[in-house]
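#lab-general

N.A. 3:47 PM
ok so I finally got the sequence cleaned up, no stray characters, all 314 residues accounted for. can someone with queue access submit it? mine expired

B.Y. 3:52 PM
send it over

N.A. 3:53 PM
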Amino acid sequence: MAFSCGITKAGPNDPIYKNGWTVGGTKSTPSQNDGRSTSGKSQEEDSQWQDQLKEFGVQLAQEVREQISGFDMDCIEAYKRGDRIGLVFEGGATFQPINERRLAMALNSNQGSDESSIVDCFIKFVGNYEYAGKDQFVWDWVSYHQLHHGTGYGSTMRDHFNLVSYIRKHKEKYPDLDSRISKLQEIATDADSFGNGSLALVYLAYYYAAIVGEEPREFVRYITSFTHANDDATKAVNLLMDIIEGKHVEAPTEEFIRANCIAGRATAYNTLLTAIFIADAGGEMEVIRRGVYVCGDTDSTLATAMLLWALKQK
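B.Y. 4:20 PM
back already:
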């Protein structure tokens, strides 16, 4: 089955583009004093955090819908739901009968992994951000993310957070934006990560780029390169943008997934191909059940599959 979300994509000279987007009205400048982690909060604090995310999410969706056809906050909610359900089965044996009792529990889970944390942080960040160029955005975003991220991140992102913290603390070594950006890119290139964390921001960043007057594909590739610089990650990011833009992608077979994606390394491209197979199952519950059946890196594959499924509903 082919995927197509049917958006109307405009070029960089289209009137839908607008610089200086300020949904929240003020620029967010991350600092050690303005941040808090999403882990270790009280129930009341967690509720307030979720309310803020919903508010910023609604503002983001309204702003984008006014200027570019295709963005839908329901796609992000579907992505996060897939993450929450998939996390319950993370690391399990692949292609096994579904534990129905465990699935019933997973359907009511409110605990997400790094996938949910990434999109939550990005929505909150851009809701208060006044755009002033790609490099400044990258530094402000990685600083904000390092200060506000939750738990469940893999080694690539943990190393990245440590690097951002180090750069910020050693201003004598990295006194200006150019030196900070250069160091981030140097280490990302050296690390050469192919992880599927590169997929989490693609949908949100694609539409945010249009709002601030950047070419979406170039913008997405640029910001994801500061954590995932391997060609496999770039290939996956490009394919996901193809799907967002409505290009037809044939779903792979189960045999292909078994032989080439699940048995091998959990790369970004393998994750996306697996998600395409899962999303081809049919209705929402069919997609969820297929994701649980495939299992493996389930939070990532099912989150991405649910995003693809939501795109098909538009």
